[in-house]
Write a structure and sequence with these properties.
- This protein is an alpha/beta fold.
- The chain has one domain: Cytosolic phospholipase A2 catalytic domain (3-Layer(aba) Sandwich).
- It is 35% helix and 18% strand.
- A hairpin with a 4-residue loop joins strand 4 and strand 5.
- Helix 1 packs across helix 9 and helix 2 runs antiparallel to helix 6.
- The longest helix is centred in the last third of the chain and has 23 residues.
Length: 313
């Protein structure tokens, strides 16, 4: 049971992780059902996106929209960049979010909100807690190599998950009963929580061909074993690995009262058409965490010594 959460005030920390971050919505719904009051949210990357929209009070509109996306819809939001710095501009996504939610400033939100981004010129983590909400979100979701960096307030920003994938520190100023972290780069589960279904019959062959070309760069697991992973697959795997390690380090220092861990193999970073399944997974795992009430414990990073490798030689 999660009755113990009823009436508790919560600082919610939402981690980075692409489409896996849709699980954040499920965790929020579980907290609402348990009677908890979310009074502060901090987020990196997709965590900033979901958290920012939640703070506007219009999460339902976003949830309804994202749950209606099909594969071809995801492709339609790809706006290629020819200026360098990333594959996509990200303008189409932000325009759609502004259409759903409306333009607003962070100071006008219903709850305390901080988006975390990285000033790439100075190598510094930056907390964006005032000014344009969608500039803050766009700065925080600028995955290196995927989205172009975002220029804002005279600085160049990239994805907040590069330095802080689970930003607990911004919530420390909030005097709430609990700090709850949602880490979507959690330990892999076997088998993977979700399985990708077949394409819908109404998708055109042309759209599907373009989608396959785009997705093939990510889904190296679909390639024969003897071939090397694609460029985007290497980039995404590297970022996932890096963020998993950084997350463990941050949570060792800023230990939350509770952590909801979403397996990092739950879905691929681009699979936003799996929204309903990811939201349901987030809710299920949150409810399990609420029932167990286990405090987060830091697990050692996995380490495999290569065959015939020796120490210090």
């Amino acid at each position: 049971m999660s009755d113990w959460l009823s009436g508790k005030t919560v600082s919610l920390v939402l981690g980075s992780g692409g489409a896996r971050g849709l699980a954040h919505i499920g965790v929020i719904r579980a907290l609402e059902a348990a009677g908890a009051r979310i009074e502060a949210v901090s987020g990196s990357s997709m965590g900033a996106l979901v958290g920012g929209i939640y703070a506007t009070g219009k999460l339902q509109a976003y949830e309804d929209w994202v749950c209606g996306l099909e594969r071809s819809d995801v492709l339609s939001f790809v706006d290629w960049s020819f200026a360098g710095g990333g594959l996509m501009q990200g303008r189409k996504i932000i325009n759609k979010l502004e259409e759903l939610v409306g333009k607003t400033n962070i100071e006008e939100l219903e709850i305390d909100f901080t988006a975390v981004a990285v000033d790439i010129d100075h190598g510094r983590e930056v907390w964006l807690s005032r000014g344009s909400l969608f500039d803050a979100i766009r700065a925080s979701i600028a995955i290196p190599g995927i989205f172009t960096p975002h220029r804002y307030r005279g600085r160049t920003f990239v994805d907040g998950g590069i330095l802080n994938p689970v930003p607990v520190a911004p919530t420390l100023r909030n005097m709430t009963d609990l700090t709850i972290v949602v880490d979507v780069n959690g330990p892999e589960s076997d088998p993977a929580p979700l399985e990708e279904g077949p394409p819908s019959d109404n998708e055109s062959e042309g759209v599907m061909n373009r989608l396959r070309e785009f997705v093939d760069g990510f889904r190296s697991d679909r390639q024969p074993e003897e071939t090397r992973p694609g460029l985007l697959a290497v980039l995404m795997r590297s970022l996932d690995t890096m963020q998993s390690v950084i997350a463990r380090q941050h949570l060792a220092v800023f230990q939350p009262d509770l952590a909801v861990l979403i397996p990092k193999n739950a879905c691929m970073v681009h699979e936003f058409y799996q929204a309903r399944a990811m939201i349901d997974l987030g809710r299920d795992l949150a409810e399990q965490s609420f029932r167990s009430r286990d405090r987060y414990t830091v697990q050692p990073a996995p380490y495999d010594k290569a065959e015939n490798e020796t120490d210090g030689e």
